[in-house]
Amino acid sequence: MARSTRQSKILELISMREIETQDELVSSLKKANFDVTQATISRDIKELGLIKILSSETGKYKYSLVDNDSQAVSNKYIAIFKEAVISIKVLGQFCLIKTIKGMASAICGLMDKLNLDGVAGVLSGDDTVMLVLPNSSYAENACKTLEKLSV
After folding, report:
1. Where are the domains of the chain?
2. Alpha carbon distance 123, 111 (integer Å)
3. Nearest Cα to 94, choosing from 126, 63, 143, 131?
4. Residue 32 and residue 55: Cα distance in Å, rounded?
5. Which of 4, 18, 59, 110 has the highest local Cβ count within 10 Å?
6. In angstroms, what CA-CA distances link 70 with 14, 65, 73, 74, 86?
């Protein structure tokens, strides 16, 4: 099948469900009667400009097509998060993130990009970020997602 047809199918697959690996993408394409190899998929991913972003629902990485205006989370943000965050705690309806000195603003920006469920707002100081959520259940879920991100 033509490259454009295969690449269209790739875009369709990643828009319908979360695909985490190239192997998973190869498998999905083979089920759709495309005879592909991992090397072919690797080239397609590069040509399509796909990146891996963090899923706010599962806390795992998935392939995504990113527009220039998109607020996708790049691996650089994740690396900064892992290096800068000291602790993550639930405090009532808040998720409190302690960072190394001077990094709270960067982490606050990342929180905006993650689009975590229920976040009403994000505030930062010099070494503290606070996510404001509707209730403690939302706060617990947000903190759990962020803890997965920090490992």
Report:
1. 3-65, 75-150
2. 10
3. 131
4. 24
5. 110
6. 16, 9, 9, 11, 28
